[in-house]
Fold:
Amino acid sequence: MSNQVCSISSGKSVRYAADLMNELGIGSLVVVDEGEVIGIITSKDIRSAHPNRIVADAMTPDPIAVSKSEFIGNALHTMEQHKVERLIVKEGNKVEGLITRETLKSTIGNYIDPLTNLYRSKYIEYIHEYLVGQGIPFYLLFIDLNDFGTVNKKYGHATGDDLLIHFSGLLKEVAEDQDYVCRYGGDEFVIITQRSHQEIQGMIERLSAPKTFHSFTISAAVGVIYGYDGSGQPYSYRDCISTASLNSTETKRNRLPSAQ
Amino acid sequence: MKMTEFEMPPMQDLLIIGKRAPIGPEAVRRMAEALSPDQFSILKIDHPKVEGVLIRNSLLEMLDKQLLLEIILEEADRLINESMVLRAEMKITVSLQREVELQ
Structure:
């Protein structure tokens, strides 16, 4: 976010706001009257308003604010939901900064795996921290493709990549809006979901079922862990991954080989 | 030099504010409130050319808001463009006709 928050009162002219923005080299000003944030005026608002108008007649009233501790994915979702380009970042009632859609998208873009378009593991770790911080219940699913090495050796890495892309598509189909899917590394994937234990059984069955890809059959082993122990204490991200991956390895041992 | 008396308030019964006028509805509301407190209301509207109408409260007490707006916009639409602010006078006359029985 941008920590430079400059404000203007609603009675100033649009011309004054434009000059101030140019002088400071910024694209928006927070509109504050008597210590209360009442709007936000952006360069776009200025371009479409007569310079003689007052800021109150050119601003976007009642700007949407997010908490400083808000998860960036939620902030972007809020922006898209309200069709706005900027959000005010608050810590309690104090305005701390501004965040633009462009900044959010580029930040999230750094966490996207270019091959599968899924999140990278760092992003999922961040989500884990966020959910734990908020005390939100969740399950972590560790999904490991069976015999992926064999596919690479037998059919080549390009086919292996195609398989990863294809499987990522399945993961996206299985996931809902509140689920977070990432490529953990190689042929391993992680889903963090807030769905109930009963609901995730369907996901696990669907992901574990053998699937035909090109001329061979492929399946996946899924390990699951609930994010909190019996006393309600959260497991660390490392422990979640470790336990869920061990569970998926256990599942692997109890199956017949595929990719034939 | 030309001297004339400054009318108070400078608006009559209505101000019709174009979408790209040099003064917007909120500024007009503040001006009216400063010059004639509690006598005017601003109505923001969704219209291709008009952004808002400042209207004398007494008119709003006599006629339904929606009906008033329909009449105002129908008439203003022929004259106004987006960058204009029109001042208008509006008088409501009530005509009564009654039959009485003579004793």
